[in-house]
Specification:
By secondary structure, the protein is mostly helical. It has two helices and no strands.
């Protein structure tokens, strides 16, 4: 893994935008984790178990990201409708 994920840039911006940026960083980290699992080419007996566990963790993170993005979309709709947030 390259460690390409960095901390979000601090600022006085919209908290929703900051949250969206954090979700995007999480998604990229998950993608890197899954890519690293695929690159494992061990002959050790634990390799298959490692790949399965990492893939399961990556899928769980992907489900969480999907739910977070859905929630952000609902918040955007509520804000557009004038509901205070």
């Amino acid at each position: 893994m390259t460690g390409a994920c960095g901390p979000p840039v601090p600022g006085a911006g919209d908290p929703t935008a900051a949250f969206a940026a954090a979700v995007e960083l999480l998604a990229r980290g998950s993608d890197q984790l899954l890519a690293a699992a695929v690159e494992v080419d061990w002959e050790a007996p634990a390799a298959e178990l490692y790949r399965a566990e990492v893939a399961e963790a990556a899928l769980a993170v992907a489900r969480d990201i999907s739910q977070l993005k859905e929630a952000m979309s609902r918040v955007a709709v509520l804000r557009a409708a004038g509901v205070p947030g």
